[in-house]
Amino acid sequence: METAEVQMVPRHGVIELAFGEPDLGLLPVDLVRRCADRALSSAGPLALAYGASPGAGSVRLTVRDHLASLEQREPDLDEVVVTAGISAGLDLLLTLLLEPDDVVFIEEPTYSLGLRVLRDHRARLQPVPMDHDGMAVDRLADLAHEVRAQGLRPRLVYTVPTFHNPTGLSLSLGRRRRLLEIAAEEELLVVEDDAYRELWFDRPSPPSLWSLDHAGVVVRLGSTSKTIAPGLRTGWLTAPAAVAARYADAGVLDSGGAMSHFSALVAGRFLAAEEYGTHVAGLRREYGRRRDVLVRALTEALPPGCGMVRPGGGFFVRVTLPQGLEASALLAPALTAGVSFVPGARGQVEGGDEALRLGFTYYEPPALAEGASRLGAAIRAALAAS
Ligand SMILES: Cc1ncc(COP(=O)(O)O)c(C=O)c1O
Known about the structure:
The chain is an alpha/beta fold. The protein is built from 13 helices and 14 strands. Strands 2-9-8-7-6-3-4-5 form an eight-stranded mixed β-sheet, sandwiched between helices. A four-stranded antiparallel β-sheet has the order 10-11-14-13. It has a two-stranded parallel sheet with strand order 1-12. It is globular. It starts with 14 loop residues before the first strand and ends with a helix. The protein binds pyridoxal-5'-phosphate (PLP). Pyridoxal-5'-phosphate binds near residues 85 and 111.
């Protein structure tokens, strides 16, 4: 029986660039403790009761104000539901919305663990290719027609349009608008995974699909995992009121109340704390610096034939390998050399072995530089042997 306390434990001697989570040293233990105190002092036993199904009213108000401060659009209160994070939000949405012959469109590549959630629901997946401007949305329109011609129902689009995992790319503004038009025309619901909105490094994030949506076709999932702490298991959903109500009416919430009720009260206090702005600005600065260190080190360490795009935010850099090399085959020698990565195929329905994903948030700069150098050496050795 496993006895680990946490999901990710670095292996001895390995720089785990596969990890996609915050540096433990940047998790705000003291401020969370103070927020927990505040939540308990103010709500007393109500902090420990079953939470209201859409989330505690005070937290929904805080989330509404928080989102209004980030975007040009303020959600109505009945458009905001508190969730137990994006993963749980996606899972429950799929439970509620997906019928057996429904097709879910995803970016190729996509967030590998989001793909696992989709697969848990036995969703029929239809990949849509990406280029430097994000998902090729015109292709989505064609694919929706093809799906319909097969007697299936195009139902959902799961997308990470802002600092996409694993590519770091963002969907262009023109394509955001076009995606919303297509969704309205094709009666698709867009599930926007907005995990990285606040973690931009060079310029503020593009507007969310949700903030541009006038047709009521977007459910946006947000999270406190990357900005506060993943262990809080809290996040939010903004959606047309009918979808938000359907979500809050789920049997699992009726039975158990809001998921992560106590954590959400703590997270709400954190979002409302005057220290929040400085905290997130500090993360942006630090993660931006780490992005720079990793990209620079990769530029020096990787042999010709490798490719990468410098991400403007988020957690990841994706590296494409020289022709003939496969990420899945490279993993064992890379681990022997003391560095890990996520092979690209994990985030794809088909193919993807020409690429790998590296995270730059878990380690401090010297380890990132060393990890890049080990990876470069492993790729060169594989090339020499091929
Ligand atoms: C795109 C994306 N969505 C969702 C998650 C997980 O979100 P949460 O912790 O809120 O479940 C991650 C974490 O890596 C992610 O990269």
